[in-house]
């Protein structure tokens, strides 16, 4: 984690994390406005520390003789890194609770358990939505509330991004990935219920959540109405 305390290195990490296809040394240097050599130094340090992964590909798209050597491309590592002092195991607690919920679902029915979990998730979502509404102000229009929705999603670790036409908010990170990968049905259902609660309480943001399960990102997207 000390690697990220250096401002330029942190800026490079953030730039790579925001690029779904990864960045070359030249592209990363251009984003942060530093030299290619300095970018290469910091990017390689981040890769050595396990925060970035490195692949090689030809950026021109050409193959065969004359296509040039493959370039180093950096993307965010899929390894989860956390710091807890003293040691905490919230991941183990979450795993145990979800497994217990699945065991209960086999006894009383999946719909009953999912409804209970989704109900609690929606309550938490409404609390987050109220915070969005308060931050925007009582007289705020749709645009202002949508902006505060983006801020809240970012602060919650979802890494929201607008598509170029503004029609969809995608969420680049799933904060519950460790559990969601093994218990997708319950986790994604809860996540959608949470997002629905956010919109219900936030008022008119111009967006509505729905499930859109794609690899490498959160299962929920917000589509413009």
- Count the DSSP helices: 8
Strand order of the largest sheet: 4-5-7-6
Cα Rg: 21 Å
- Work out the number of β strands: 7
- Would you give the CATH topology of the largest domain? Muramoyl-pentapeptide Carboxypeptidase, domain 2
Helix content: 40-55%
CATH architecture group name of the largest domain: 2-Layer Sandwich
- Unreliably modeled segments: none
CATH class of the largest domain: Alpha Beta
What is the N-to-C succession of helices and strands?
A: HEHHEEHHHEEHHEE
Please report the distance between the alpha carbons of the first and last residues. Answer: 40 Å
Shape: globular
What does it look like?
- By secondary structure, the chain is of the alpha+beta class.
- It has two domains: 2-76, Winged helix-like DNA-binding domain superfamily/Winged helix DNA-binding domain (Arc Repressor Mutant, subunit A, Orthogonal Bundle), CATH 1.10.10; 90-224, Muramoyl-pentapeptide Carboxypeptidase, domain 2 (2-Layer Sandwich).
- Helix content is 51%, strand content 14%.
- The protein contains eight helices and seven strands; from the N terminus they run H-E-H-H-E-E-H-H-H-E-E-H-H-E-E.
- It has helices spanning 7-17, 25-32, 36-48, 90-108, 110-136, 142-155, 177-180, 184-202; strands at 23-24, 52-57, 71-76, 160-162, 168-171, 207-211, 220-224.
- The strands form two sheets. A four-stranded antiparallel beta sheet has the order 4-5-7-6.
- Helix 4 crosses helix 5 (110-136) and helix 5 packs parallel to helix 8.
- It is globular.
- The model has no long low-confidence stretch (mean pLDDT 92).
């Amino acid at each position: 984690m000390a690697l990220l305390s250096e401002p330029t290195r942190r800026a490079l990490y953030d730039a790579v994390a925001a690029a779904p296809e990864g960045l070359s040394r030249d592209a990363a240097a251009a984003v942060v406005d530093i030299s290619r050599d300095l970018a290469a130094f910091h990017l390689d340090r981040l890769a050595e520390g396990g925060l970035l992964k490195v692949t090689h590909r030809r950026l021109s798209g050409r193959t065969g003789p004359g296509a040039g050597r493959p370039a180093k491309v950096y993307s965010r590592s899929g390894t989860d890194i956390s710091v807890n002092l003293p040691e905490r195991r919230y991941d183990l607690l979450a795993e145990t609770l979800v497994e217990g919920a699945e065991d209960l679902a086999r006894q009383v029915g999946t719909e009953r358990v999912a409804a209970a979990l989704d109900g609690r998730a929606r309550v938490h979502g409404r609390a987050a939505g109220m915070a969005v509404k308060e931050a925007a102000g009582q007289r705020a229009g749709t645009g202002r509330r949508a902006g505060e929705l983006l801020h809240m999603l970012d602060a919650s670790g979802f890494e929201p991004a607008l598509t170029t036409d503004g029609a969809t908010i995608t969420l680049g990170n799933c904060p519950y990935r460790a559990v969601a990968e093994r218990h997708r049905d319950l986790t994604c259902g809860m996540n959608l219920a949470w997002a629905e609660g956010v919109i219900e309480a936030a008022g008119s943001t111009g967006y509505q959540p729905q499930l859109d399960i794609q690899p490498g990102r959160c299962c929920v997207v917000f589509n413009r109405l």
